[in-house]
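Run log, item B.
One chain of 135 residues. Sequence copied directly from the ordering sheet:
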Amino acid sequence: MSAQAPLRSVDAVVLAVPDLDAGLEFYRDGLGHDLLWRNDDLGQAGLRCPESATEIVLSTRLPSEPNWLVHSVDQAIDAITAAGGQLLSGPTDIPVGHVATVSDPFGNRLVLVDLSAGRYTTDQHGQVTGVAPEP
C-alpha cells in the first residue's frame, strides 16, 4: 500500500514573516541557511535545510504550515477525499506546478504540491528567473 500513498515527503515548511528582508536577515544571515530562491512577486523565499531536501519557505502571504510533495495534486485530492478528508481550496496553478489544501478527518490542514512544471531557476543572487522541467 505504501507505493500508493500520496504524501511523498515534506517539500517545505512555510514560515510567515512580515517581509522577506526581515525573514532573510534572521534565517539566512542570523542562522546561516543558504538562499535557494527568492520570488518577490509571490512574497516568498526558499532556504536550504543542510541535511534535508525540505526547504524553509519564508512567506509574506501564507500561514505557517507544512507543504507535502505529491506526484499529482489531483490524484492526491482524490485519494484523501476518498479516505474521508476534505478539499479546502484548489487545485491552483503555481509557477512550478499545482497546489491544493485539504484537511484530514481531524481538521489538520495538508498543503499538497506537485512540481509538474519543474523547479525554479535563479540568477547568481537567488532571484527567480524562470522554471526548468525536472530531468
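Observations after the first pass:
- The domain at 7-64 is CATH 3.10.180.10 (2,3-Dihydroxybiphenyl 1,2-Dioxygenase; domain 1).
- The chain has two domains: 7-64, 70-124.
Flagged for discussion on Thursday.
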